[in-house]
């Protein structure tokens, strides 16, 4: 719901046109909305994840800037990505990735690190994609692209698994008594990868779910 409302609000604001300082004006609007969402969450929890939708406005705007100035980001030196990686690691270590409920102690640090990790993952994806093309691994590349296109479905069903099915929790409890903790985590991560792959493979064949998670594929040209 946060993604839905966030996309809706973001798209409506981006339709606005300012004669002067267009991007700066929109940045100011998104900054205000982000602060409203963050501080409002400390007072009241709005329905349908509206707090998170407001609080993620700067994140949406950052994504827009990355896409608009793609060539500039493509030319960033290696040390810039090392800084992004360090920021990502630092915040992840502190456990501040709480944008879904606006519970992060420092929302700006949270957002900056979120953008940093996105840039790292984008760069890593580009490197992997170039390598796959170079090695003629087109079939494997298509499978990776399929998983990427189904990221929203993967996220939703991953949350369903965590909150309701709880296979991950059951696995950890069963394995913790017999194998080292690191091995249990590794098995759990393998399960998550298999689960994600099955989701993007099965969902396109389920009519209603296909329309929800793969709307573009559902529209016949």
UniProtKB/TrEMBL annotation:
This is Acyltransferase 3. GO terms for molecular function: acyltransferase activity. Its EC number is 2.3.1.-. It comes from Oenococcus oeni (Leuconostoc oenos). The chain crosses the membrane at residues 21-40, 46-66, 78-99, 111-132, 144-160, 180-200. Keywords: Acyltransferase, Membrane, Transferase, Transmembrane, Transmembrane helix. The keyword Transmembrane helix applies. The keyword Transferase applies.
